Amino acid sequence: MDGGERFCGPTSWSPDGDLLTCIALPQDLFVFSIASGQSQQFPTTLAWNAWLPDGRRLVVSNADDALEVLDVRTKLRKQLLHIPNVAAVDASVSRDGRTIFFVKAREAGDVFVATSIDSAKNTPH
Predict the structure, then answer these.
(1) How far is CA 32 from CA 29, 65, 72, 104, 115, in A?
(2) Which of 1, 49, 88, 118 could cross-link with 61 by S-S, CB 3.0 to 4.6 Å?
(3) DSSP labels for 37-94?
């Protein structure tokens, strides 16, 4: 990573097995290329991430209670959903990449479903 002592986790493999994500404290997202041995850092506050089937985009949660789609090649973000006072955790993306299921972190038992991932709006970062 950056040479400092950092804990890395949770991790997630891209669908094609070429990339590995890791959230390193203080919640920066790292994307490691297995083939090149290189990594990209996306400074942000993240709780989790989940790969979309294309192996190029991730769904990530941020500190602003929003779900975003992050393109790891272009580094563009698209806001997918914002729910005030809801921190999303334990998310899962459907096999076709059109639906995300996630649990509300602040109260047990609240499950949400988000659809239409490709209709999200671009947000450059």
Answers:
(1) 10, 26, 11, 28, 28
(2) 88
(3) --EEEE-S-EEEEEE-TTSSEEEEEETTSEEEEEETTT-EEEEEEE-TT--EEEEEE-
Domains present along the chain, CATH in parentheses: 8-124 (2.120.10.30)
| 61 pLDDT more than 90 | no
Between 9 and 41, whose confidence is greater?
Answer: 41
Please tell me the distance from the alpha carbon of residue 87 to that of residue 73, in angstroms, as a whole number.
26
Task: Please report where in the chains the tokens 């203080």 appear, as a residue.
Answer: 26
Q: Is the pTM of this model over 0.70?
A: yes
Q: Distances in Å between the alpha carbon of 63 and those of 3, 13, 37, 46?
A: 25, 23, 29, 7
